Amino acid sequence: MTACADPGGSVGAFLCQAGQVLRAAGVEGPRQEARMLLAHAMACREEDLLRDPRVLVPQPAVTAFASLLRRRAAREPMAHLLGRAGFWTLTLETSPVTLVPRGDSEAVVEAALSAFDASGRIGRVLDLGTGTGALLLAVLAECPEATGVGIDLNPAAAALAARNAATNGLAGRAAFLCGDWAEAIAGRFDLVLSNPPYIETAAVPLLMPEVARFEPALALDGGSDGLDAYRRLTRVLPMLLTPGGRAVLEIGQGQRPSVEALARAAGLKPVSARQDLGGIDRALVLRAD
């Protein structure tokens, strides 16, 4: 570990030392993450830390920061440590009972909004496996006339999503239920969203430590070929969608042809796919005719 120039108890010294710890642990962007953790421990903004690196860190914040740093060096997700994550235009409460909302999943929101640009407004929305409620709430935030229902197998996740709806001013247009996919649902929807588990079982332990060690396996493991959830979803989607309605499913790398084949076999028409920032097909749009 190299020496840090700032005095031992200063903001600058803590950031320097923490950056070294996180770098050694294999964390990407260690200095930025160190700033995020210290700002959280000191209940201030990151820019406040940069104003004068010589400021001494109060002892309560030192204790809190040390705990946060140990957990992040063990590769616990930053969203678990902060208790929140940004998604689309929203700030969402996070928890180990759900997946951490990711930027790649914003492709699902983009695809959903684009799918209705020329075909009319979005009325009723269903989000299957809602987790934090990220997909549903992002769409509702963009569509003031829409209402929606989110379903999750885990009651703690459904409760978390309901809190996120409330804190983002969307509680009046969103309801969250505990259920096994669509078994608790009657009626039809203009738009169905889902980010189902799609990782092959054998590949789950090989994911980055933040995911493999700390995120719920139930939300990751898609069976031996990663397609188990899509088999169930494509069977029920024709009964859930209004005529001309759309389903937008998040998919894994290389899964588009297989999921499209399952959709066609169920009487659904693949319409388009949206790529994530890495250029990977990430959101598949299906239509009910």
UniProtKB/TrEMBL annotation:
PROSITE patterns: N6_MTASE (PS00092)
E.C. no: 2.1.1.297
UniProt binding sites for substrate: N195, P196, P197, Y198
GO annotation terms (biological process): methylation
Domain Methyltransferase small: residue ranges: 113-203
Pfam families xrefs: MTS, PrmC_N
Domain Release factor glutamine methyltransferase N-terminal: 17-83
Keyword set includes Glycosyltransferase: no
Coiled-coil residues: none
Annotated family: Belongs to the protein N5-glutamine methyltransferase family. PrmC subfamily.
Cited function: Methylates the class 1 translation termination release factors RF1/PrfA and RF2/PrfB on the glutamine residue of the universally conserved GGQ motif.
Name used for this protein in its record: Release factor glutamine methyltransferase
Organism: Neoroseomonas terrae
